[in-house]
Amino acid sequence: MPILGFGGLSVLDAHLLETVARGTHSRKKIMIPLAVVVACVINADALTALLRQATWLVAGVIVLIVVQAIAARLPQPRVKPVVFA
Fold it and tell me: How far apart are CA 15 and CA 30, in angstroms?
């Protein structure tokens, strides 16, 4: 069931930028406003911060893998079973 907007039209068909591609009968009119929003939100500072966080995440995962590999090679202490008399 479509979500109705103004005038009973579907919300996805009631765009402000509807006249941009009127002659093409494009069904991807939602892409223009989404591209504008994404372009405004993602700037160079945000992208740099995202890449910095991703770098730290990858480095942390690599350190955890190395620690697990080293821990697997270390000798494990043997625990003697407790005998109740």
Answer: 8
